[in-house]
Amino acid sequence: MTAHYFIGIKVDKSIRAKLTEWQNVLADSMNYKDWTCEEDFHITLKFLGGCSDKTIETYKNKLMNEDWTGAFQITIGPAGYFGNPKQPRVFYADAEKPKELEVIKLEIEKIGSELGFQPERRTYRPHVTLAKKNAEGKSPLALENYDPLLDESYSMLIDHFSIFRIHPQQKPKYEEIAHIPLNKEM
């Protein structure tokens, strides 16, 4: 069986702890089938799906040889959702989309296309998934007096991104197999 991969940005440990608090608030009113493990919180840049070790190694080498933008700050938060506002299929922490992130995303897509990966057709919406596959309950964001914790935002320095291998039956399920540093200028 071919392993599945994605390219993304791991969320800082201090912010992961805050997002776990958000999950606790969410769990008081919603019952999701799939809760993201704290160690797996990330911003996806490109889902690759199944591919060979050789293809991943080629992709990694191309990414490592790029002249990337310098490190930059982004904001994580407030809370958001995809789907019905009362019973969203995905509940997430929003992520800012500064120009630097857009440039990285475009270059990853360009390299991916050269290697035969299909370009993403949907508009890129960076976020950190907290829970998905809704089973029942009512979104805390749909309540009149929801917890203000879900309105908070946190600043995070982006100085690298990674290639992750997916292990669907494990917790945590995402293994970093390549670390791609950004230039150190800021």
TrEMBL record:
<feature type="active site" description="Proton donor">
    <location>
        <position position="42"/>
    </location>
</feature>
<feature type="short sequence motif" description="HXTX 1">
    <location>
        <begin position="42"/>
        <end position="45"/>
    </location>
</feature>
<keyword id="KW-0378">Hydrolase</keyword>
<comment type="function">
    <text>Hydrolyzes RNA 2',3'-cyclic phosphodiester to an RNA 2'-phosphomonoester.</text>
</comment>
<dbReference type="GO" id="GO:0008664">
    <property type="term" value="F:RNA 2',3'-cyclic 3'-phosphodiesterase activity"/>
</dbReference>
<keyword id="KW-0436">Ligase</keyword>
<protein>
    <recommendedName>
        <fullName>RNA 2',3'-cyclic phosphodiesterase</fullName>
        <ecNumber>3.1.4.58</ecNumber>
    </recommendedName>
</protein>
<feature type="domain" description="Phosphoesterase HXTX">
    <location>
        <begin position="9"/>
        <end position="92"/>
    </location>
</feature>
<dbReference type="InterPro" id="IPR014051">
    <property type="entry name" value="Phosphoesterase_HXTX"/>
</dbReference>
<dbReference type="Pfam" id="PF02834">
    <property type="entry name" value="LigT_PEase"/>
</dbReference>
<comment type="similarity">
    <text>Belongs to the 2H phosphoesterase superfamily. ThpR family.</text>
</comment>
<dbReference type="InterPro" id="IPR004175">
    <property type="entry name" value="RNA_CPDase"/>
</dbReference>
<dbReference type="InterPro" id="IPR009097">
    <property type="entry name" value="Cyclic_Pdiesterase"/>
</dbReference>
<feature type="short sequence motif" description="HXTX 2">
    <location>
        <begin position="127"/>
        <end position="130"/>
    </location>
</feature>
<dbReference type="GO" id="GO:0004113">
    <property type="term" value="F:2',3'-cyclic-nucleotide 3'-phosphodiesterase activity"/>
</dbReference>
<feature type="active site" description="Proton acceptor">
    <location>
        <position position="127"/>
    </location>
</feature>
<dbReference type="GO" id="GO:0016874">
    <property type="term" value="F:ligase activity"/>
</dbReference>
